[in-house]
Hints:
Blueprint: H1 18-50, H2 57-68, E1 74-76, E2 80-82, E3 88-90, E4 94-96, E5 100-103, E6 108-110, E7 115-116, E8 121-123
Parallel strand pairs: 1-4, 2-5, 3-6, 4-7, 5-8
Amino acid sequence: MQTGYKNFSYKSEKNDDDEGKNKFGKVIFQIIVEGLRIVKMPKRKMIALNATGPDDLETRFRLIKEIFGGKADVWIEPPIYFCYGKNINIGEGCYINFNCNFVDDGKITIGNHVMFGPRSSSQQSVIPLIEFS
């Protein structure tokens, strides 16, 4: 079937590579579903942290401890966005300004007394490699 796009056509017959593509697609789908299951609770805590008001410091510090593994000597100006939270190691005396994004598919380590300006981003992405036999 010709599509009208130059140098592009769609082949409807099944070829030998289709089974490998289907297997790969199923594995990727399983990884995505498992990832969604894992991030559900941290995302809820992130939303709760982002909803804290300026007078609700007790709740804010409690959520920071829960999300980032016991660190309380950190100031986070909501909103903050991350994938998991548990993969972010924050040093003492850090300041994270509003609208910061952390893609923590891998480990992110922030040293002591580090300051992030508004809308800063830090990414540590990991792309899974899958071997098919």
